[in-house]
TrEMBL record:
InterPro entries cross-referenced by the UniProt entry: AAA+_ATPase, ABC_Ni/Peptide_Import, ABC_transporter-like_ATP-bd, ABC_transporter-like_CS, Oligopep_ABC_C, P-loop_NTPase
Gene3D superfamilies xref list: P-loop containing nucleotide triphosphate hydrolases (3.40.50.300)
NCBIfam families to which the protein is assigned, alphabetical: oligo_HPY
Subunit text: The complex is composed of two ATP-binding proteins (NikD and NikE), two transmembrane proteins (NikB and NikC) and a solute-binding protein (NikA).
Keyword Heme recorded: no
EC number: 7.2.2.11
ABC transporter domain segment(s): 25-365
Taxonomic source organism: Halorubrum lipolyticum DSM 21995
Protein name: Nickel import system ATP-binding protein NikD
Amino acid sequence: MSTDDRSSATPTGATDDGGGDESLVDVRNLQTTFFTDKETIRAIDGIDFTIDPGETVGIVGESGSGKSVTARSLMGLIESPGRVLRGSSIRYRDLDTVRSFADAFSGRTVSVADLESRYDPVRVFDQTAATPAEFGYADPADVPLVDVVAAGYGDEVGLTSGDECVFVLDGDAGDPSSIRRGFVELTRVSGEAQRKMRGGRISMVFQDPLTSLNPVYTVGNQIKESLSLHQGLTGKEATQEAADLLEAVGIPDARRRVNEYPHQFSGGMRQRAVIAMALACEPDVLICDEPTTALDVTIQAQILDLIAEIQETRDVAVMFITHDMGVIADVSDRVNVMYAGEIVESADVEPLFANPKHPYTEGLLNSIPGGQVGGRLATIDGSVPTPNEEPTYCRFAPRCPKAFEECEAVHPIPVPVDETADDHTAACLLYPEDESTEAAIARHRGRSHGGERE
Ligand SMILES: Nc1ncnc2c1ncn2[C@@H]1O[C@H](COP(=O)(O)OP(=O)(O)OP(=O)(O)O)[C@@H](O)[C@H]1O
Ligand code: NI
């Protein structure tokens, strides 16, 4: 424990948090790797995205593109031989959560301003595998200290101890009510802090409801367990709330059905019950990983409606994962298109569908059968390669109708599709499209997503 790092000194102004201040979740350079006997699979290879409060962020891509591993990384569910690598950061910015964590885990809370006097960027970048480029800077001295410590490199040079998971940017770490800016770093939560985040602030609905339901307990008892754990409700109060939740997710005759077992529910009703369980934690973020794939088409549409309704009435942010472009169009505010462990295009839903930029996105759109919701994605020729080596090229190039020579030699990074489009990025050498091909290629060549090396 790093109780020594807990200081009551007043910070001298907040360290720059690198923008995107209003996002609830801020994923930066996330790298999740599976070290199998056979190969090293870079399942998530340096992705960035954000989730704003109350919005629905879609993640779409073919099988094997890394959607579920992204969700599991956010939930802290990656198990050996997998690991979220150093250099990754997943920031959870809800201020109430930050304050309550600073209170509950004072020994794991650190004020970034207090580290400043001991921070020597040259030493960090000489003594660790970190590179300024992975943080988006050329000069080590420009990299914000908070980025370095949140990504875990502070531990390697003795700046932090490895226990800190709450970073205070503005306010007094020792006085939670004074905190005005900060975040919980999800790649560093463990133990009790992890249990409060996972299934608490962030909750997940899986493809198969039976993975979340225990066959030997009634549906009501499982919801009540969650209510007791996360809201401290017990007895009659909990029974009442469990029935109310089942009713809220559209289960008819909820007061009777709360006493039934999962096998007495139909597939669609089970998924509704799982959603009720997830809501029992009163989450700020609901992650849905293909929640309707196992259901028939009419039921699918009902569950999608339910998720949309929940999002509106309970002000929950949703991260929605599917391989189905039709569903993505229906549910998302913002869309991230994944391919072989990378986000290859990111935009608000309208521009993405009206004006797709990455050839992979175009391919996905062309293969929607009649644009109908629920239609399975017809495949683009070939399949997603296993990302088992460091990319020095475009992973989509072998399947890309627009590929040219340099695509085999330069790894594209997400860049604005044109000068005016900050919110629309594509990882493709064709962009920014208002630059000459040479200038665009130089931009991609010059930067890389670094991070921990095996
Ligand atoms: N436990 C594991 N061990 C080794 N490799 C894994 C493991 N889990 C996932 N992977 C690999 O990570 C990559 C991404 O898998 P992921 O399950 O995230 O894909 P997905 O986009 O969710 O696909 P689908 O649409 O089929 O669910 C794949 O190459 C997969 O083989
Ligand atoms: Ni998946």
